[in-house]
Specification:
about 100 residues; mainly beta; Immunoglobulin-like; 5-stranded antiparallel beta sheet; 3-stranded antiparallel beta sheet; 1 helix; 8 strands; about 45% strand; globular
Amino acid sequence: MKKTKEQKRSSDAAKRKTEFRLLAPRAQSVFLCGDFNRWNPSSHPLKKDNKGVWKISLNLDPGQYQYRFLVDGEWQNDPNCDSYSDNPFGTSNCLKFVG
């Protein structure tokens, strides 16, 4: 069943603009992967500013999300994150809380 325009507007209104950023001036590519995009390694490329900070903003529903960065093909956690969750690969995922 398709949503009406009014239903879509109302569900979009609940979403919060959420920024992800990573300082990686030497990186050639940075992607954001998480449960919000089914850990797709290519769906959310970040853009680098002139100071070497990679950024992306997503509209996310309130809740908790697990994520990591894929930097030049290597998984990396967000150094500014202070909450983590163990993953099945023996490492941890970052947690982002959207209010």
